[in-house]
């Protein structure tokens, strides 16, 4: 038996549409916001205020960008994209969810995020940080240090450092483990390892990691933000101080969504 969470009502939302969104979809959302009598703004805020949230109109990519926003606002997604694994609802169901938000009838789920550092540059990831080769040919030799100790030297196309929330993203496509998104762990999954002995690794959230490459490569956050890593330049990765806050309906069940979106345990193709 689950207890109903005690949340403050959401009093205002800021709308973040995905790029090149069809105007009719934004107009449909605005109609729902007005019908639900939910105050909203089409411009992002410059300061954080309580009982406000970021409404992401699009797919998971739009939502991931919002989770990295400097203000760290609670976010929820309205799905008009491709997969919509992380989103709370779609346009057909947004009116009902908006009314629930106004009553405080929702779940505010806090998810672990990753922080990478290259010199003085900080990189934030809600799903993952991926170290990958720059070219299509050859392979990387990556040294992985865990809490100051050399744990492994990988010969791979890359390494995925994923959060539990991101375990069903790039990580799952290369054979990584699936974790409940509320777990507190860091996943390390090799991409095309040149060895039969390399396996995915799951660490506790307090692990401090260092990656050193034998050649220039790239570091990509959530498949969206790209940085260059020079040869022998260390990349430090650890749990971020902030968390990603996702607002979800009370009735949402992670494993039900997993079955629906990925046809987990089913012979039917995913939706």
TrEMBL record:
Reaction catalyzed: NAD(+) + ATP = ADP + NADP(+) + H(+)
Protein location: Cytoplasm
The EC number(s) this enzyme carries: 2.7.1.23
Keywords in alphabetical order: ATP-binding, Cytoplasm, Kinase, NAD, NADP, Nucleotide-binding, Transferase
GO annotation, cellular component aspect: cytoplasm
Amino acids binding NAD(+): 60-61, 127-128, 155, 157, 165, 168-173, 192, 224
One Gene Ontology term of the molecular function aspect: NAD+ kinase activity
Known cofactor(s): a divalent metal cation
UniProt function note: Involved in the regulation of the intracellular balance of NAD and NADP, and is a key enzyme in the biosynthesis of NADP. Catalyzes specifically the phosphorylation on 2'-hydroxyl of the adenosine moiety of NAD to yield NADP.
Stated family: Belongs to the NAD kinase family.
Protein name per the record: NAD kinase
Species, as recorded: Helicobacter ailurogastricus
The organism's taxonomic lineage, starting at the top: Bacteria, Pseudomonadati, Campylobacterota, Epsilonproteobacteria, Campylobacterales
GN (gene name): nadK
